[in-house]
Write a structure and sequence with these properties.
The chain is α+β, with helices and mostly antiparallel strands. It has five domains: 4-191, Sandwich (Jelly Rolls); 194-310, Immunoglobulins (Immunoglobulin-like); 331-660, Alpha-Beta Barrel (TIM Barrel), CATH 3.20.20; 676-765, Sandwich (Immunoglobulin-like); 778-863, Immunoglobulin-like (Sandwich), CATH 2.60.40. The chain has a six-stranded antiparallel β-sheet, covered by helices on one side. A hairpin with a 2-residue loop joins strand 16 (227-237) and strand 17 (240-251). Helix 5 runs parallel beside helix 6 (464-476) and helix 8 packs parallel to helix 12 (590-613).
């Protein structure tokens, strides 16, 4: 028979809380239990706290400080149970019950009989229930989820940690204490014949010219008897079968490992986003049991089959351009080509991570792909993600840097050396890697986040638990890369002091995460020497609509740490004093503070990233902190708010991550006291395409549209490299207005603008002039595509002043279903200037499609 899966997911589960082992006294897990009161409807996969919220048992934990009122939940024991029917025709087959993820420790009962116990949220609980099921009748499945373990919040000592569980929900700087419990991944029955496929692993070896791929397909079979079997292995590219292998084997009772080989001519490689197609192959294995009929003729009966997706690619580390012989290599080489890492740090998309949110996951990863991201670092305080995450990354060409769930703790950051802890981590890793290693997107395993010794030096593979994890990775996933922790090298922090003291010691570094100041931000990144910058950021406030949805208007001011609600919702990232001083202490309401905060976040982070890119291949990768957030904070370093609405920093980064990008280096954003504006102009090209003769036009232009100086460069740029085009200078005494822009265009031989950049500046000591620009007007022309899924907007500034930071926004409530995508957003328009924006509507009825458009100095208009 072909493999059959019977899903036990759904919203037809019941759940109830108990204190300690009160459930045993009440026989609550048994079919004939008299315990009938206070059972609530629950959902699997899911989260205990979310189910309580949906049942009205707790107040919205995302609002103000309501999460504090739910901290009792993980102190309880919870039983989830479900009745289901099994058809009689399944009798005689082998049946396994699979729990892909239960958080954290649980006991399992089927029809009142205990079938097992499991501990660990990232490993599957699997039970043979062939002899326990009621065939042709009703069955009761009960899961007793124990009280959550007492683990460490962000500030503690890493050596105290004893479990491999997400630490974020115990409290982190971007997540309140909402400790997770629940059946957080799929539950299903797997029905097979006597022989079952337990594991498939596909490895590929490419010829030097990448025209031939030799595949090794390792299979693990389990059987309840001795048998003769035939393995049919078929390789598919799309619907086309490109290779097949048939082999006969004699297997014993228990497990048997079988290896097959195949080859693919002219393989289509899996390429990272921005480098080509992320092509996927499939392998299908049929296991046929060979039998002789009564007349001695051979016959074959399908016992089971299995199909997995894989990609053909190679990854390796190469040495950076550094004089330091002690530095690790951090240049990522994919399919023989150096690939600059354009990344982000990824955290769980929800503090209640058990909730199934397929549309939100696809939205987030679509935004990452559209922003030019080719790698996400899955941070070590969060999750080994569900399969859906890696499957989408496979499709989108987004490489995954996956950390084991270990993290720094502030007070002390060294993991335990206890043998039992190391053994547990190794056993977890052995199971996790087997489940994830076929994903071509998963290119790098890492031991954890910010693991350091007492002198704040990043740990290496001599650390017992990290050395043990490395050995597991090298044994089970030899085609993946490894880093012991992030950062690595002899220096942790990206600071001016560290750069001055040991400029070649900035290997892989972290920080800072805050805007440094109107000149300090630029000084730091102009002096940068890092080889890899795997975590850093700039803080910014959330959107006003999100703030209104999560904090009552009366509690929105002051937006400082002295406000207990703000303190609860991102206190580490409240930089209100910096925002106020940058804007002359003129910000007097949440709306203005949000605009100013998001402006500093966008300008600060894009300059940091552009500075790293300009040092290609001394620096080989940049991964800002953080792409998304799991909770609707008031302040956060995230590029998107909890509801997946991009902040201006998202679009600034999307421009920086274009394949060909012009940028400028300069000293500051507010120029009072300086005689001359100076900027160096660069082109960074991250692909290998020869672009031919190019023209670059630079100009310094006032907010009035008056051009004070312009320059033109012609020539060629080097592919897969950063090229300095030249220097621009202008006496600031020539300026007759307080706000000006430095604009750069790059034009090809066909007169097409292939890249542009625009930097806003103030001639004063702060950014107050940006608040008091004269009003202007934006004219909007709309065209709708034939199929209706797209709007094309032509935006024209018909006023006499620059429209400062034009912003398009979905006019619907933040919780409305469906999403909007823009080709660009949060940009300035000079007087008379036009810009075309494509707007894509996803899962939004035509009647509900409406946008708001505004600028700092232009009122809100509705686009219907």
């Amino acid at each position: 028979m072909a493999i059959k899966q019977i899903s036990l997911n759904g919203s037809d589960w019941l759940f109830k809380d108990f204190l300690g082992e009160d459930w045993i006294w009440r026989n609550a897990e048994k079919p004939d239990s008299k315990d009938s009161r206070w059972w609530r409807k629950g959902t699997v996969p899911g989260t205990v706290l979310y189910d309580l919220w949906q049942n009205g048992e707790v107040s919205d934990p995302y609002f103000e400080r309501n999460s504090l009122l739910a901290e009792w939940v993980p102190e309880r024991t919870w039983i989830y149970k479900k009745w289901f029917d099994i058809d009689a025709f399944i009798f005689g087959q082998r049946v396994q019950l699979h729990f892909k993820g239960v958080d954290f420790e649980a006991q399992f009962f089927l029809n009142g009989a205990k079938i097992g116990h499991h501990k660990g949220m990232f490993t599957a609980a699997v039970f043979d229930v062939t002899d326990t099921l009621h065939y042709g009748g009703a069955n009761l499945l009960s899961v007793v989820i124990e009280k959550a373990p007492d683990e460490q919040p962000q500030v503690s000592k890493t050596s105290y940690v004893r479990e491999h569980k997400s630490r974020m929900t115990y409290w982190w700087d971007f997540c309140p204490r909402m400790i997770h419990q629940g059946i957080w991944d799929d539950v299903y029955l797997e029905v097979t014949g006597p022989i079952r496929i337990e594991d498939i692993y596909v490895r590929s070896t490419l010829s030097n010219d990448f025209q031939l791929a030799k595949l090794t397909i390792d299979s693990t079979l389990s059987s309840n008897k001795q048998a003769e079997v035939r393995l049919e292995t078929c390789i598919f590219s799309g619907e086309e079968q490109v290779s097949s292998v048939v082999s006969d084997h004699f297997i014993s009772e228990g497990e048997t490992k079988i290896s097959s080989t195949a080859q693919v001519n002219h393989p289509r490689l899996w390429q990272p986003n921005g480098s080509g197609e992320a092509h996927l192959y499939r392998v299908r294995i049929n296991v046929l049991e060979r039998k002789n009929d009564t007349e001695g003729r051979a016959d074959s009966l399908l016992s089971t089959d299995k199909e997995i997706t894989f990609g053909i690619r190679t990854v390796a580390w190469h040495r950076n351009e550094t004089p330091d012989p002690t530095a690790r290599p951090y240049v990522l080489v994919v399919n023989g080509h150096k690939t600059y890492i354009k990344g982000w740090n990824w955290v769980p998309m929800d503090v209640m991570y058990g909730r199934e949110q397929a549309a939100k996951l696809e939205r987030l990863l679509t935004l990452a792909k559209q922003a030019g991201v080719n790698m996400l670092r899955v941070w070590g305080g969060g999750l080994i993600e569900k399969d859906a995450f890696y499957e989408l990354c496979n499709r989108f060409g987004i490489m995954v840097w996956q950390e084991f769930i270990q993290s720094s703790s502030g007070i002390a950051n060294k993991p335990s050396e206890d043998e039992a802890f190391i053994t547990m981590m190794v056993q977890e890793a052995e199971q996790i890697i087997l489940r994830k290693r076929n994903h071509p997107s998963l290119v790098l395993w890492c031991g954890g986040n910010e693991l350091q010794d007492s002198d704040d030096r990043p740990l290496d593979d001599t650390e017992p638990v990290l050395g043990a994890l490395r050995q597991v990775v090298e044994t089970l996933h030899p085609d993946a890369l490894w880093l012991p922790t992030s950062p690595t090298g002899r220096c942790f922090s990206n600071t001016l002091d560290n750069i001055d003291q040991d400029p070649t010691g900035q290997h892989d570094v972290h920080g800072p995460w805050e805007f440094q100041g109107l000149s300090q931000q630029y000084e730091l990144y102009n002096k940068g020497t890092s080889l890899l910058h795997s975590e850093f950021g700039v803080e910014g406030m959330t959107h006003l609509k999100t703030l209104n949805h999560t904090i009552s208007e009366s509690n929105q001011w002051p937006a400082t740490r002295d406000n207990p609600i703000y303190f609860h919702r991102g206190s580490w990232w409240i930089n209100e004093p910096m925002i106020q001083s940058s804007f002359g202490n003129e910000l007097r309401n949440p709306e203005d503070l949000i605009r100013a905060s998001q402006f500093l976040q966008a300008e600060g982070l894009r300059y940091a990233v552009e500075s790293n890119l300009r040092r290609m291949w001394q620096n080989s990768g940049t991964l800002p902190w953080q792409f998304n957030e799991p909770f609707p904070n008031a302040y956060c370093t995230s590029a998107l708010d909890y509801f997946t609405n991009p902040k201006p920093v998202y679009y600034a980064m999307a421009r920086a991550y274009q394949t060909i990008q012009v940028s400028a280096s300069f000293a500051m954003i507010a120029w009072e006291g300086q005689e001359t504006f100076k900027a160096d102009v660069w082109v960074v090209q991250s692909d290998r395409i020869e672009l031919g003769e190019l023209t670059s036009q630079w100009c310094l232009v006032g907010a009035s549209g008056h051009i004070y100086s312009e320059f033109q460069w012609q020539g060629k740029v080097a592919p897969s490299a950063a090229t300095r085009l030249g220097e621009f200078e202008l006496s600031l005494q020539q300026l007759q207005e307080d706000v000006f822009y430095f604009r750069i265009n790059l034009v090809n031989a066909a007169k097409e603008v292939i890249s542009s950049n625009c930097y806003p500046f103030s001639v004063t000591a702060n950014l107050v002039p940006m608040l008091v620009l004269s009003q202007t007007s934006i004219q909007v022309e709309k065209k709708i595509s034939e199929e209706g899924a797209f709007w094309q907007l032509q935006l024209t500034n018909v006023g006499t002043q620059a429209a400062f930071l034009v912003h398009l926004e979905d006019a619907r409530p933040v919780t409305a279903e469906g999403y909007v995508y823009y080709t660009d957003n949060d940009f300035s328009l000079l007087p008379g200037e036009s810009k075309s924006i494509n707007v894509q509507w996803s899962s939004i009825p035509e009647a509900d499609r409406k946008l708001d458009i505004s600028a700092w100095n232009s009122p809100v208009q509705n686009i219907l």
